[in-house]
Amino acid sequence: MAIRTGRHGPHIAEIVLDAPPVNALDVKGWFELADALTAQGSDPATRAVVLRAEGRGFCAGVDIKQMQSTSGFEALLGANSGCAAAFAAVYDCPVPVIAAVHGYCLGGGVGLVGNADIVVAADDAYVGLPEVDRGALGAATHLARLVPQHRMRHMVYTAESATAAELHAYGSVFAVVDRAELRDAALEIADRIAAKDPAVIRAAKQSLNGIDPVDVKRSYRYEQGFTFELNLTGVSDRLRDGFVRGDGD
């Protein structure tokens, strides 16, 4: 399975992305992640969730090779629905979600991290949206929660990335640590949250979502509409085929 779950003590859930070689999730993987987040958050014993990954990087987004090897739009529609479900599951989780990010965090990975409550990062971490190079749009909604507006636009248009140190300077990453210390740093925050009254923490999560200035689920689905339009023109298939062939790498 691409998604593993475990426990750190009785009150902290760990959800781990483990889909070699690059943690690019296929359609099934995105829905598995959404289900894992929902299940762990629904458990009355859970007081915090740590979302992290194994391997070279946190998440490389959707599995484009699956998309290009599937006829019609079935994989595209599945990936878009799966991403929306997983991003929403992070946001709607009744308890705080701490994202622990290392290496690359691209595309769908930004959707997960941008919707998390707290982000800690390894010093090798970076985030980016290569969507325009793949004939797609999406997760600018979530990137805008990590970087300022004009930097977000620059990153979308150029497909360039931002380092963990840059995000820490913006205040969207709580701490940058050595890669070997990343899991412990995330669990330390989770432990501090788990020590609080659980009813108050769950109320705090609900209240903070309620005062958000942007409806992240509606905003992301709006972005996805343009991805569907680009696919109908054929440009998306052309760019994704080039990616699968390795053009420009």
UniProtKB/TrEMBL annotation:
Lipid metabolism is among the record's keywords: yes
Domain of life: Bacteria
Coiled-coil ranges (or none): none
Keywords recorded for this protein, A-Z: Lipid metabolism, Lyase
Similarity section: Belongs to the enoyl-CoA hydratase/isomerase family.
NCBIfam families linked: PRK07938.1
The protein's name in its UniProt record: Enoyl-CoA hydratase family protein
